[in-house]
Amino acid sequence: MSLQQTLQVFELLDSAYIDGQQVVDLFAAYPGVTASTKRVSGPKGRTDFVRIDIPGAQGKSNGGSAPTLGIIGRLGGIGARPTRIGMVSDADGAVAAVSSALKLAQMQTKGDVLAGDVIITTHICPDAPTRSHEPVDFMDSPCDDITMNDNEVIAGVDAILSIDTTKGNRILNHKGYALSPTVKEGYILRVSEDLLRIMEMTSGKPAVTFPITTQDITPYGNGVYHLNSILQPSTATDVPVVGVAICAESVVPGCGTGASHEVDIALAVKFAVEVAKEFGRETCHFYDPQEYALLLSLYGSLSHLRTRKA
After folding, report:
1. With contact defined as beta carbons under 8 Å apart, do 194 and 278 qualify?
2. Contacts of 296 (CB under 8 A, 6+ apart)
3. Beta carbons within 8 Å of 236's beta carbon, 6+ residues apart
């Protein structure tokens, strides 16, 4: 079960004194896992980026050819101190990413080694600023989005799950988590049937998806409205990206405290772990390469959407 790992990580991160090194130390007992942290300062404060590498039996890190999955915990900050006390709703992505890594690390000690590598990234900031957004305020980040992508979108992965709290809107009215269509190089593609299958299998319920627009897959800072930053990694990579939105039925501000639900985060963790298992075995695909090639031949590249100005 993923709930045990989620609760452990939740309690660790729910602290005014948490930093990236404490997250790295969480993985010290797992010799096959590599964890590192990097502190970055920006005009609005500082944050600690964390990277956790889980090697696969046939992964590239071991000289194999199994595909590598990237899991990003996307957020502005896990806390908004001193204006807010405690963990904010926006922290869900970080909790889910680190919990996924912890679950995969513990699996290895029990003999369950995945085929492909998994690389998990997020960042840890207990005192991030907030910013205005409609319909409710969001968490901001100490650093700009380019810096976020530079540290979280890792070269060498073959697909990315971007996990992000997505509660501050009236578009997605579901408690739990939901999946976005696949985004690749400016194209919004069909929702992956494999990911829908895994979602239904792990949740025991019908799959839930959420709509995205062209605005959502363009870079932050271009002046257009974005649902949130869940698909910002797609602006910095050529590989397919799918958003895993941890969501609520009500409209919840990203800077709201007491709004995280451990069970919902654990469901997203379970989904991410099962995707990691299948992606390395090549039984889970994020998109159809042949259909994507047909789109390119018919309509050309949409990569210009990944830039702030065409």
Report:
1. yes
2. none
3. 149, 150, 153, 306
Q: What is the pLDDT along the chain (310 residues), one digit of tens a residue?
A: 689 999 999 999 999 999 999 999 999 999 999 999 999 998 889 999 999 999 999 999 999 999 999 999 999 999 999 989 999 999 999 999 999 999 999 999 999 999 999 999 999 999 999 888 778 777 889 999 999 999 999 999 999 999 999 999 999 999 999 999 999 999 999 999 999 999 999 999 999 999 999 999 999 989 999 999 999 999 999 999 999 999 999 999 999 999 999 999 999 999 999 999 999 999 999 999 999 999 999 999 999 999 876 5
Torsion 153-48-143-14 (CA) sign: positive
Instruction: Please name which of 148, 279, 295 lies closest in space to residue 219, comparing C-alpha atoms.
Output: 148
**Hey, how many other C-beta atoms are within 10 angstroms of the C-beta on 111?**
6
Q: 48 pairs with which residues across the strands? A: 39, 124
Of 63, 100, 294, whose CA–CA distance to 190 is shortest?
294
Structure tokens that stand for 297 in this block:
């031949």
Measured between alpha carbons, how far is 248 from 263 in angstroms, rounded to an integer?
12
pTM: 0.97
First-to-last alpha carbon distance for the chain, in angstroms, is 46
Q: For residue 185, which of 287, 286, 301, 67 has the smallest C-alpha distance?
A: 301
Q: How far is CA 310 from CA 26, 183, 186, 303, in A?
A: 43, 18, 12, 9
